[in-house]
Each structure stands twice: as C-alpha cells, then as structure tokens.
Amino acid sequence: MRARTRLLGRRTYDIFAAYWPNKEGGEDDEIATLFNRVPKYVASRGKPDLSWVGSTQLGSDLAGAVREIRDRHEHVKVVGSLNLVQTLLREKLFDRLDLWVHPIVLGVGKKVFDGGAVPTNLTLLQPPAAGPKGTVYLRYGLADGTPAMGDMGAPDRGAGRDT
C-alpha cells in the first residue's frame, strides 16, 4: 500500500513546521501525530529549514516532482499553499479539488482562482454538503474538454427571484 503524504508551499510549511512538531500528546494530538508521521514535500525556490522529520524540498521541475509523488503515494494532500495550488491547477496536476465555501466575505486576501487561472472543466463528484453554520463542502474532479461559454447549468431558483 502506498503511503499518504502532504505537499506544501513554503509559507504553509514554515507555519506548520513551527507548530505541529510540538503538539503531540496535547489536545491536537491526532492531527499532530498524522502531520509528524507522513512525508512532507515542500515546493520552494529558497532554502527552507527542513528539520521537521520527513521533510523534503522539491527540485526546480515541480510538475515532474508532483507526478512522481502522485505515483509513489496513495493520497497527496495540499493544505493552504495557494501559490502551489495555482500551479497545480494550471498544470492540471490534481485528481480532486476540495473546496470549503465559508459564509463570510473578507474582501482581501489571496484568491484561489486569480486573474491568471487557466479555464478548466470540473465535474462535481458528490452532492454538496453543508455544515450547521453554513459552510458548504464541494468536491470536484477534472472533466474532459475545454470550457465553453453559454449555459452554466445553474439550478432553477424559481420565479420571482431577486437578481
């Protein structure tokens, strides 16, 4: 059986590496144990501190490295790391895109789908799920073809709706 792993951008890695190695045995033990146990791959052009056990920096061929990691590991999960996520989206180096839509508007911050996002067809893999506070979980996979303009297949919200 292939192992699970984490693929992280440099900033997310630095934040996680400063926090999770010291949290086993506490209230965050379950996630700390997982994060400390799995291999961690860091996408960075710089020289990150790789003292967190199981950490490896990826080389300059990110697409090739990600393909190799995907062949070697059963589950490759990216958390945060929006610069890295944008690269994975552009290169179509993902099997599944999990989005959590929270019912807040911040107005600032890094966008997942920035102005340079590559048009990509996605297919909904399971019905959306909503949490008790209105957070909606969406799970998408890559779909064939090139996106076409036109009917977006929006659900019918009924007559007399506000526009």
Describe this structure in words.
The protein has 163 residues and is of the alpha/beta class. The chain is 25% helix and 23% strand. The chain contains four helices and eight strands. It has helices spanning 10-19, 29-37, 62-72, 82-91, and strands spanning 3-9, 40-43, 55-57, 73-78, 96-101, 122-124, 129-130, 136-142. The strands form two sheets. It has a four-stranded parallel beta sheet with strand order 3-2-1-4. It is globular, with a radius of gyration of 18 Å. It starts with a strand and ends in a 21-residue tail after the last strand.
In short:
By secondary structure, the protein is an alpha/beta fold. 25% of the residues lie in helices and 23% in strands. The chain has 4 helices and 8 strands.
Mean pLDDT: 86
Order of helices and strands: EHHEEHEHEEEE
The neighbouring-strand order within the major sheet is 3-2-1-4
Mass-distribution shape: globular
Count of discrete alpha- or pi-helical segments spanning 4 or more residues = 4
What fraction of residues sit in β-strands? 15-25%
Strand runs, count: 8
Q: How does the major sheet shape up? A: 4 strands, parallel
Return Rg in Å. Answer: 18 Å
Helix fraction, binned, reads: 10-25%
Quickly give the structural class. alpha/beta
Unreliably modeled segments: none
N→C terminal distance: 51 Å
